[in-house]
Structures are given as C-alpha cells and as structure tokens.
Design a protein that fits this description.
Rossmann fold; 2 domains; 5-stranded parallel β-sheet; 9 helices
Length: about 250
C-alpha cells in the first residue's frame, strides 16, 4: 500500500559510503524517499528536478564553517531556499546560534533510524504546510487588491471542501469549479488572484488547462498553484514547463 505522505529528503555529503549507509538505514521507512548528492553543485542541479522537502546534512568535527557556507549557498537557490535542514552531529556545536538562525534542526548522530525518520517526516509536513500558507500571501502581495480571490479547479468536491476549510480563517474569497470543462468561463467571471489546479480530472486535465490559462489575456498573469497527489519529478517538471508557478502535493 502506498503511503499517504512521501517525505522527499536530499542528503548532501561528500562521502559516498556515508550516503549509502543512510540510504540503507532509512530503507525500512516506506514514506521516506532519500536521494543524495556528493557535492554542492550536484545538489543544486538535482534539486531543481527533485524538489526536496528536507535537506539532510552530516557534520564531522572541524566542518562547521564549511557547512555554514553550504547552507548559505542553498538559501540562494530557488529550489532549496526555504527547505528545512536536519543536521546530524556529535556533541555540542561551537556556533549553534548561527545554525539555528539558518533554520537547521540539530540532531545527535546517535539517534536511531526511527527517530530520524520521524524528524524528517515532521520537517517535511511543516514545509508543506508553509507552502500552502504562502499561496495566499503571494496572491495578496498588493494590499490595494483587497482580499485574495482563490479559485480551486478540482473534480473532487470533498478535496475542495477540505481546502476551503483550511482557508476559512484567512482573508480570502474562495470559489470552486468541479467541472474542468467550465473552468475557463468560471475563472473569467470570478477573476481570481490565485488558482489552485488539480492535474488528474476527467475530460480535461490540469495539463490541458495550464496552457489555456496562460494564453487567456484576463488570466495569464494569475499565479497557478498545482495541487496534486502525484510526486514524480517528471510530472512536476511538465507542470512548470506548461506555466505552473508552484507545485504542492495533496
């Protein structure tokens, strides 16, 4: 049975032996997907496609300055800028405040595999929640526009209701369209400031709608956030190529 939440972790570590050790250590956690890169350059290149939800780092004695430089480089990259980091180390840090300021979660390297997996899951879920909260902030960046107008295009009424409940406390006007064949007309009439778009729908898919939205003079500048249960990198890359501004897994 496929897990409901697949936690996507990128381990950045120069030692290939250590990388393979943690791939094996977390293999029993079915909902943790661990990929690794052995250099910063490879990590940044791979992140653009993999879109990690947690960065995992190992800290050896005397490596604090190097890890801080790596974190600064990650924060300058769009795909990893806001991704939480978990760092495994032995003993106390000399510069713990700087790591904390960089959003790093410190764990003892002696932690067992289950404890590590739980921490990675928690960071991943927190990151997803923050992404969903950012959707409304992006839509209402200009205060003169008034409340955000969120249009969700999804054939599932249950999912639309769940998202609507999450947005109930926000300063937003929420509208849904459960029939993708009517999506363009609904969007033109509603004039949303952000669109939440499902990919898998009958008759017309989200992939079909993305170029249509981007070609419409009234809607082409409206941010489109894809909400999908599909986590494959190829699917995400295709969505971005067709005009999606962001991609969040349900």
């Amino acid at each position: 049975m496929r897990p409901e939440h697949n936690c996507k972790v990128l381990l950045i570590e120069e030692s290939r032996f250590q990388c393979l050790f943690y791939v094996h250590a977390l293999k029993s956690a079915d909902d943790v997907s661990l990929k690794f890169a052995t250099s910063l350059g490879n990590a940044l290149q791979f992140s653009d496609e993999y879109l990690p939800e947690v960065i995992l780092l190992l800290l050896e004695p005397g490596e604090e300055a190097g890890r801080l430089e790596l974190l600064e480089a990650l924060r300058e990259n769009a795909a990893t800028r806001d991704v939480p980091a978990v760092m495994l180390c032995e003993g106390a840090l000399d510069d713990e405040e700087r790591f904390a300021a960089a959003g790093v979660n410190i764990m003892n390297r002696d932690a067992d595999n289950q404890t590590l997996a739980r921490k990675l899951r928690a960071c991943s879920l927190d990151y997803r929640d923050r992404l969903k909260s950012d959707i409304l902030r992006e839509a209402s960046a200009d205060e003169d526009l008034g409340p955000s107008r969120v249009l969700m295009i999804d054939d599932s009424k249950m999912i639309c209701q769940a998202i609507g409940q999450k947005l109930a406390d926000e300063d937003a006007v929420f509208e849904t369209c459960n029939d993708p064949t009517l999506a363009l007309d609904v969007a033109r009439e509603f004039r949303p400031t952000v669109i939440l778009l499902d990919l898998e729908m009958p008759k017309i898919t989200g992939f079909d709608l993305l170029p249509v939205l981007r070609d419409d003079p009234l809607l082409r500048e409206v941010p489109v956030i894809v909400l999908s249960a599909i986590s494959e990198p190829q699917t995400k890359a295709r969505a971005f190529k067709l005009g999606a501004n962001d991609y969040a897994e349900k």
